[in-house]
Amino acid sequence: MAQCTAVIDIGSNSMRMAVFQKTSRFAFHILHEVKSSVRLSENAYKNGGYLQDEAMERTALGIGEFLSIARSFGTRKIMCIATSALRDAPNKAAFLSRIKREYNLSIKIISGEREAYLGGMACANLLPAISEALTVDVGGGSSEFTVLRNGKVEQLYSLNIGTVRIKELFFDNNDLNGAIAYIDEALRQLPDFGIHTLIGIGGTFRALTRALMKKEEYSLKKLHAYTTDNITFLHFTDQIMDANPKKLRALFIKSDRFDTIKPGTLILERIIRHIGTKTLISSGVGVREGVFLSDLLRNSADRFPSNYNPSVRYLLDTYAQHSDHSLQCAHLSKRLFELLYTTLNIHLSYKHELTIAAKLLSIGIGVRYYAYQRHSHYLAMSSLDYALTHPQITLISHLLLFKKGHSSSDLLPKNSYASLLPNESMLNGLGFILWLSHILLASRINASEVIVELIDGQLIISGKYLYLVREQLKNLVLPKNITITLKDI
Hints:
- It is a single chain.
- Helix 1 (53-72) runs parallel beside helix 3 and helix 13 (325-340) packs across helix 17 (424-440).
- The protein has three domains: 4-109, Nucleotidyltransferase, domain 5; 112-288, Nucleotidyltransferase, domain 5 (2-Layer Sandwich), CATH 3.30.420; 310-488, Hypothetical protein af1432 (Orthogonal Bundle), CATH 1.10.3210.
- By secondary structure, the protein is of the alpha/beta class.
- The chain contains 18 helices and 14 strands.
- The model has no long low-confidence stretch (mean pLDDT 94).
- Helix 18 links the parallel strand 13 and strand 14 (483-488).
- The strands form three sheets. A six-stranded mixed beta sheet has the order 8-7-6-9-11-10, sandwiched between helices. It has a five-stranded mixed beta sheet with strand order 3-2-1-4-5, with helices on both faces.
């Protein structure tokens, strides 16, 4: 079994564990996740920050079962961190000693700044590239802020405004005005960032985003990298703040969030207005991924190599082990794209997505050869998570649906994710280039053995191995302004 690492994150409200499995040096995927609403800080903020016996008992029992799960995967390394609840607790030493004694587990309490760094670093590595953004992680006891510029962490802040803290200090006393004043006073500690893109981390933001996606009937079922605007988001948060339990259900909020969703929503709403946010991006990664990446990337300055995508590499490691055909397709696709994109009126920016699609072309064969295109599409749609936008994931996955005798747009399911794709002409042009590359390499030759030229709309292809190419080209739908001539060498 490949090497597995478990990361346990003990928060004020929830305790979570992710089990990560490496497939090569930097590639990985999440093998298992588990969450428990242990509410470690329950009633602590009303009692000077002291952890209460029932909350500590719940958390200890949860840790024991988390460790049992981790062992079932043969994990070689278990890292456990704790944030605000233990950070603030005067009686934390007794709890730490108990966990060490009963489970031989050392819990590392991290500072608010370290918590902000880990969440921000995970976003910098695993979200699509953004020139500048502010990550905001609203937790149970505190909220962390990280300034990202050009993929680098630049500034870190931690404020004592969290969902459980605000709930116990204000919402339990029906003191909404007091909560607003407390939050706004804390936010005055932040400088004027001049940044209008907010990346949301943490359970509250994810719960609101999932609910908004359902309400909007968003077509792609992926939370990570979902993007919306401040007007849409704030309109939805207004509805949340005014909702009774029945209405919260109608707004797709889960019942286990009912007591903390409004304090968390209020915190986010005040942050958005204070900062002047225009664009909001949801992050499916956070502190747990940051802890794992800080170990994985410890010798590379906490950054993946340039142009490296761990999701793409994971798929290749797992499903494309028997041939370098996909890599050769990627090389040939780039050459054909550079030759044809002007004639086919395709935006130059789509070369990136085309190249990834070519690399992933045959991953479905790792499931089953017959109908492998459908399997490739499913695997890409399911497993492409990191460093790609939703339109990029949708386009890459759709290009893998090739079927002989059909244009690319013919294969688009009706009432599906068409709104995330380029127009029909570009889609067909990209599909043509990808599958022409695949056909030209039918004999599993090296891409360098194929010579391509474009002269007055005539694509001239020269090579030694063209017998199978001639046969398979009959089933390829050609663009109207392109003809193909084959020349044997």
